[in-house]
Design goal:
The protein is of the alpha+beta class and about 270 residues long. Helices cover about 35% and strands about 20% of the residues. The chain has helices at about 5-20, 55-75, 95-100, 115-130, 145-150, 165-170, 175-185, 220-230; strands spanning about 20-25, 40, 80-85, 90-95, 140-145, 155, 190-195, 200-205, 235-240, 245-250, 255-260, 265.
């Protein structure tokens, strides 16, 4: 049995004994029918000069596990608990309560309700991870006062949500996600009102993005969505076509960045 497989087996035994929520494997190994859910994450070392002392290694491993655990902690109503990280260097345990305190959705409460932003993030992570029909796709969701958003945007295509009642298009109803994933392949962005109802898809934002300062590599979709959050008290959730990374913007700034493969989650500012 390989070293990675031995470490994963040990991690699963520990997780079962402790009643852990999940195991996140930073090793190249699989075990059929694990007793707890197992997620895979990239096992890269930071590009900086992090010390390779025992203390330095432990600090890096703990930070990597906290970052990878963040998507689990974003689930609404999450009961908390522990997560076990399996590394080639050892096993690490973290509390999801600690992760929540760092990557809480509370910072968006003034803009949108917690269930709505949580649902949009979960859907965005699925789109970023799965793509559509075997290819990656990028799109964006603008969440807030729908009338205000529609007032400074226009349709690129016929709006597929026009005339549909809110209860049919609610982001809170997972049965609506499949159609959203289908429309995510179209040009333009989604508009979601404060209650979570999708009111438009294929929307082009009529904003001036020249005053938005973003990291290099982020394109027009990110700039336009970020500019909209400067003009209005709304939240923008954007999925990068390249890599599927999900970023959340308010007031023109990136507040949260989540990679859908559980490899990294971090604050943007």
């Amino acid at each position: 049995m390989s070293q990675d497989r031995l470490m994963l087996s040990a991690g699963l035994r520990l997780a079962a004994d402790l009643g852990a929520r999940a195991v996140i494997a930073f090793v190249d190994a699989e075990i059929p029918d694990p007793p707890v859910p197992v997620f895979s994450a990239a096992a890269t070392w930071p590009d900086d000069d992090s010390p390779r002392t025992p203390e330095g290694i432990r600090e890096v491993l703990v930070e990597r596990l906290r970052a990878a655990s963040a998507p689990i902690s974003l689930v609404p109503g999450d009961p908390g608990g522990t997560v076990i990280g399996v590394f080639s260097d050892g096993l690490v345990m973290v509390s999801l309560d600690q992760v929540k305190s760092r990557f809480s959705l509370e910072q968006f409460d003034r803009y949108v309700s917690r269930p709505v932003i949580a649902a949009v993030l979960q859907l965005a992570l699925e789109i970023g991870r799965e793509g559509r029909e075997g290819r990656p796709i990028g799109t964006a969701f603008i969440i807030g006062d729908a009338d205000a958003i529609l007032g400074i945007s226009h349709q690129l295509i016929l709006n597929p949500y026009l005339g549909h009642p809110p209860e049919v298009t609610s982001i809170l109803d997972r049965s609506s996600w499949e159609s959203i994933k289908e429309f995510a392949q179209l040009d333009g962005m989604f508009v979601i009102d404060s209650s979570g109802a999708v009111v438009a898809a294929g929307r082009y934002l009529d904003v001036d993005s020249r005053l938005v300062h973003l990291p290099s590599g982020l394109g027009g979709r990110h700039r336009a969505a970020a500019a909209m959050t400067q003009l209005l008290p709304v939240v923008a959730v954007i999925i990068s076509e390249s890599g599927g990374t999900v970023r959340v913007f308010t007031e023109g700034l990136c507040r949260l960045e989540v990679r859908p493969d559980l490899a990294a989650v971090q604050r943007c500012v």
